[in-house]
From TrEMBL:
Native source species: Candidatus Uhrbacteria bacterium GW2011_GWF2_39_13
Protein name: Amidohydrolase 2
Domain Amidohydrolase-related: 44-275
Taxonomic lineage of the native organism: Bacteria, Candidatus Uhriibacteriota
Record GO terms (molecular function): carboxy-lyase activity; hydrolase activity
Keyword terms of this UniProt record: Hydrolase, Lyase
């Protein structure tokens, strides 16, 4: 089975297709990221309410992540949690992620047990006037290294670097190597494949029992339009590509290509995060 740990829902999704996606048996869970708060006009992204509606119709299957709007106040995170969101998605901040004024947001997320997926690295071009005010146009406020101080300050917060952070791949390596609460997903720029081949077998030194980089990488498609037929075909292509790549390249030459190791990327790592967060919430 597969968990898609970084994806988006299309506006006015086809609910029959969403049901079929799971019934087909390729995916067990999809983490849906809301970015409607950015006001982007380049794609027809679903609203907060639509994402919550889908997650309610398919409980435990389509997992809702709310847009973490750093232009608001930390109290908005309480609203999002009460509305039913499982986690948060940070995207296009006006200042770098590790700006001190953003720390109260992360403190609140840690307190509420809400993981945060941070977009890292290259970002889609968007002209002025095509999104909301006081947001960033380029990737410099979303560099992977900016997650490190957040992870250190809030050890109970789960951070996921959305994508592998190209062109700052060595910063991503630092995140995975040293910080136990930072993960990254493999969606996005295909140039990263070269980096994955060379780095998935690297050992972490994050204070936990022996782990390797492949223990902290999540499969994801970053599909823009879950709930749209054409996009579903692209999602299946992406799943097949990564399955073939990890098996046919990995299994012959690398430890990370062994069946049990590559299954961590497709399923096990995301499942551990999800189950751990639910368990910790239950213990509070």
């Amino acid at each position: 089975m597969v968990i898609d740990a970084h994806a988006h829902l299309v506006k006015n999704p086809d609910f029959n297709l969403l049901k079929k996606i799971i019934a087909d048996g390729n995916l067990e869970q999809v983490w849906l990221m809301d970015v409607s708060g950015c006001g982007l006009t380049t794609h027809d992204f679903a609203s907060e309410d639509e994402i919550i509606e889908v997650s309610a119709k398919f409980p435990g299957v389509y997992i809702p992540f709310a847009y973490l709007d750093l232009r608001k106040t930390p109290d908005d995170i309480d609203r999002l949690k009460e509305k039913g969101f499982f986690g948060l998605k940070a995207y296009r901040p006006e200042k770098p992620y590790d700006a001190p004024e953003y720390f109260p947001f992360y403190e609140r997320a840690e307190k509420l047990g809400m993981p945060v997926l941070f977009h890292t690295g290259m970002v889609e071009k968007c002209a002025k006037g095509k999104m909301g005010d006081n947001l960033s146009f380029g990737p410099t406020n979303m560099q992977p290294a900016q997650l490190s101080s957040i992870a250190a300050a809030f050890p109970g917060l789960t951070l996921i670097g959305g994508h592998l952070g190209y062109p700052w791949l060595e910063e991503t390596a630092q995140n995975l190597y040293y910080y136990p609460n930072i993960y990254h997903d493999l969606s996005g720029y295909r140039k990263d494949v070269e980096w994955l081949i060379k780095n998935l077998d690297r050992k972490c030194n994050d204070g936990l029992p022996t782990r390797y980089f492949n223990d902290k990488i999540l499969f994801a498609t970053d599909a823009l339009c879950y709930g749209e037929k054409r996009e579903y075909l692209n999602i299946l292509k992406m799943i097949n590509f990564w399955k073939l790549f990890l098996e046919l390249v990995g299994s012959y030459y690398y430890r990370w290509g062994e069946k049990t190791e590559r299954e961590k990327i497709f399923y096990g790592n995301a499942k551990k995060i999800y189950d751990s967060i639910l368990k910790n919430r239950g213990n509070k």
